[in-house]
Amino acid sequence: MHPGKGQPLEIIQEEFAGKILQIQGVGGFLLVRNNGQLLASKTDMTTDPQTLAAMMTLSNQDSKSLQSTMGLGRYHYLMVTQENIGKLYVFPIQNHLLGVIHRCPDHDPIFVKRIRQFIHGLAS
Questions:
Q1: What is the pTM of this model?
Q2: N or C terminus: which one in the chain shows less Cβ crowding within 10 Å?
Q3: CATH code of domain 24-123
Q4: CB 13: neighbour CB atoms within 10 A?
């Protein structure tokens, strides 16, 4: 999630967007800092990306509270379903949240696997 040597942040964001949008089933994405700051987004939705970023941040905070209260381990992803969004999968990545829009009516574990492989590829 950090710019490479000599590369401006905008170029990194464009490369990131290009790669994630190539994954089969991705209908858009949002990249957000844990504090709610929207870093990048590409969606075709009428919902304001800043509103989705706030929803992702609040969902993350709620999940962390549940983890702490119940003594659970770190979550791998959250899934939020809304009629006008479809499915929004939220993946924690270090100090960021990646929201990925999937328009399929059913939960798709293969889609989730593709996104998780993409995320793991970022670290290597």
A1: 0.82
A2: C
A3: 3.30.450.30
A4: 16
